[in-house]
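Reviewers of the previous submission asked for a worked example of the structure-prediction workflow described in the proposal, so we include one complete record here. The input consisted solely of the amino acid sequence. No template or homolog information was supplied to the procedure at any stage.
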Amino acid sequence: MTRKLTDKPISIGADHRGVVLKERLKGWLQANGYKVKDCGTDGGAERVDAMDYALRLVAEIKENRSDFAIGICGSGQMMAMTANRFPFMRATLLHTAAESVPAREHGDANMLVLGADTVDEATAEQILKTFLDTAALGGRYAERRERLAKLDASGL
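From that input alone, the workflow returned the following structure tokens.
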């Protein structure tokens, strides 16, 4: 691992389908010197709504308790769609480590979303490592991020 992108805890949350992967990634984060804020769920037996856990992760970033979040549900879609409803969120659903580079460099993604049904645990660890080892580029990419935060449907 190179330098850490944050000293704040990384928030992580999952629905019932993502609990096993969440626990694996929590262990990876802790083993690599990151503090972790677990936003649930804790049990895999009871069905829960991914949207509720995505909102918990969004709140951690909104309240400046975390700079980065990791959301996991079956496909990853509901976590990403929910988080991206907020202008300060830049959630990215990834399937490969290579996708992490432009998501961070060009999009300054602040939430990694994974599909527990679509990504195996070893691949998920590689995606996470690449995500956290990649810094956002400035310049036109920072301008794009600011423009993205200001998008408003009323202007269409």
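The first helix runs from residue 19 to 31. We consider this example representative of the routine output the project will generate in years two and three.
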